[in-house]
Amino acid sequence: MMGSVKKAESKKPPGLIDLVFSWSIADVCNKNLYKGKVKQIPKTFSSKDDYMKSFIYPLIEETHADLFSSMTTVSRAPTREILAIHISKKFKPPKVLCYNISLKRMGDIEKGEGTYEPEVGDLIALTEVRPKCIDDLNRPKGPYLIALVQGARGDSSPDILPVLSSKPVMFDQDAQKDKKGATLFAIFLTNMTTNIRIWKALNSEVKGGNMNIIQKVLRSDTTVGANCTRCFSEENESVSVSKARDAIVPFRLDNSQKAAVLNCIATRQCYHQNTVKLIWGPPGTGKTKTVASLLFALLRMKCRTLTCAPTNIAVIGVTARLMSLVIDSLGYDTTYGLGDIVLFGNGE
Predict the structure, then answer these.
(1) Does the pLDDT value for residue 28 go beyond 60?
(2) N- or C-end of the chain: fewer Cβ atoms within 10 A?
(3) CA Rg, the chain, in Å?
(4) Nearest 5°: phi and psi at 313?
(5) HEC states along the chain?
(6) pTM attached to this predicted model
(7) Residue 263's pLDDT is what?
(8) Is residue 4's pLDDT more than 50?
(9) What is the Cα–Cα distance from 317 to 343, expressed in whole angstroms?
(10) Is the separation of the CB atoms in 85 and 102 below 8 Å?
């Protein structure tokens, strides 16, 4: 009789929040924590997996640096007093430590007290004192404890906040009611929403259309060439490209920015080769200006365009630059005709 064979369960790799929760105060303050692991991102990639993996450690290092930076100014961080902490229905130790935090009502906050308004994705520290330095986040009676805000405060209970904690929370409810226990505070550290989204994208199994787009951008298919010789030659320059060239002259783009805009316009009308373009550049090289100039040219062509970004701030930045270009092109300050530009966000 053969014994039953159990399939080996594959361990789920730790998520970004798991890594952040695993850091001690010493880890957060250690600038060399990931020294040697963060490599320079190459200009070309051999595969989709190679592309995805190359951004993992830079994202971790950026998250680590943001957290350390916020802790160095923790004395000025937004705070809010906590009245009670209750175990959530989602509580499943030892990993899923979910709690519902009862915050002091805004109307009961006296002048000079913290008025922190938590948002989804906020990383907060739970402390017994208002911290004046990093050491106050890790006291003998109150060791380092952080939590992730998981949901918005409900309309029926606007001061109840659901969080995921890095460690079990010890809070004496009865002593607090009798004013005998230590007060607990929620200290804002940073918001993790964007980094979590990027982490999920880098670690997801991308299939279908999204995979095809990535493959085209990476040009891992050797049959995919560069620009189409039929559509990108000066002799065959289309009327649209010619008009776009004239339209962006006042914007004083440099050669690389101008080429990016015109190549995108030409690519839109090319049916021979790759129709995906990647505009890449480090901070401060004018990517927003380039994208806004491209959108302006497409707007002049009456081309319906959808522009997406990981944050509302990024979308607003591009929109503001585009509106500025439109107004400047008209020669006077007006909002007439800007109804063709629609801006909306996710409310986060």
Answers:
(1) yes
(2) N
(3) 26
(4) -60, -40
(5) CCCCCCCCCCCCCCCHHHHHHHCCHHHHHCCCCCCCCCCCCCCCCCCHHHHHHCCHHHHHHHHHHHHHHHHHCHHHCCEEEEEEEEECCCCECCCECEEEEEECCHHHCCCCCCCCCCCCCEEEEEECCCCCCHHHHCCCCCCCCEEEECCCCCCCCCCEEEEEECCCCCCCHHHHHCCCCCCEEEEEEEECHHHHHHHHHHCCCCCHHHHHHHHHHHCCCCCCCCCCCCCCCCCCCCHHHHHHHHHCHHHCCCHHHHHHHHHHHHHHCCCCCCCCCCCCCCCCCCHHHHHHHHHHHHHHCCCCCCCCCCCHHHHHHHHHHHHHHHHHHHCCCCCCCHHHCCCCCCCC
(6) 0.68
(7) 85
(8) no
(9) 11
(10) yes
Q: What is the mean pLDDT of the chain?
A: 78
Residue type for position 289: K
Q: What is the pLDDT of residue 182?
A: 57
pLDDT value at 221 more than 60: no
